[in-house]
């Protein structure tokens, strides 16, 4: 179940958390990288590649054909936020298998990121930035087996739902 509420000038989404599991990195991905990652694993649908710093995430040039060949849905590339940035993490999300070269801000990816970084940093409240071209800032709150994702949103379409 997904719910959304307005909190001031932000929207808060309530998602199920996604537990990261360590996996052996595919040889083709390891060859593609200039150095081994800090950590590699997967969640329900996506692979998680942890790099050493935010600059490595921001400058990451994806091989979409390679990503398409090794993923079920997508690849999340992440690293800790820079010191004094106020960010706990930065990330990018690539899902060519489902027609998304790079997603601007990915709620479901942050369900995995919140658990990974929450455990690693010993925090339940995290500040995140998705470093795509459009990008976005998110607040992530771990609450048991749920993740509350908050951020500013822009209305793109209005209408009525009949169901």
Q: Would you kindly provide a written description of the structure presented here, covering whatever features stand out?
A:
This protein is an alpha+beta fold and 163 residues long. The protein has a single domain (17-136), classed as Diaminopimelate Epimerase, Chain A, domain 1, CATH 3.10.310.10. Helix content is 20%, strand content 37%. It is built from 4 helices and 11 strands, in the order βββαββααβββαβββ. The protein has helices spanning 27-32, 54-58, 64-70, 107-121; strands at 3-7, 10-16, 21-22, 39-42, 46-50, 74-80, 89-95, 100-103, 125-130, 136-143, 146-151. Strands 1, 2, 3, 4, 5, 6, 7, 8, 9, 10 and 11 form an 11-stranded mixed β-sheet that branches. A hairpin with a 4-residue loop joins β7 (89-95) and β8 (100-103). The longest helix is centred in the last third of the chain and has 15 residues, at 107-121. The radius of gyration is 16 Å and the shape is globular. The mean pLDDT is 93.
């Amino acid at each position: 179940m997904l719910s959304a509420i307005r909190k001031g000038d932000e929207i808060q989404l309530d998602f199920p958390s996604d537990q990261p599991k360590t996996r052996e990195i595919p040889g083709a991905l390891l060859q593609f990288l200039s150095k081994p990652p800090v950590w590699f694993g997967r969640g329900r649908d996506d692979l998680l590649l942890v790099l050493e710093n935010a600059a490595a995430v921001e400058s990451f040039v994806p091989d979409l054909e390679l990503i398409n060949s090794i993923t079920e849905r997508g690849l999340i590339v992440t690293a800790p936020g820079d010191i004094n940035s106020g960010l706990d993490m930065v990330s990018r999300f690539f899902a060519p298998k489902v027609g998304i070269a790079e997603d601007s801000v990915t709620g479901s990816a942050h369900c995995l990121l919140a658990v990974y970084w929450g455990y690693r940093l010993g925090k339940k409240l995290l500040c995140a930035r998705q470093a795509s071209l459009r990008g976005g800032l998110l607040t992530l709150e771990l609450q048991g087996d749920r993740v509350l994702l908050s951020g500013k949103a822009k209305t793109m379409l209005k209408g009525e739902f009949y169901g």
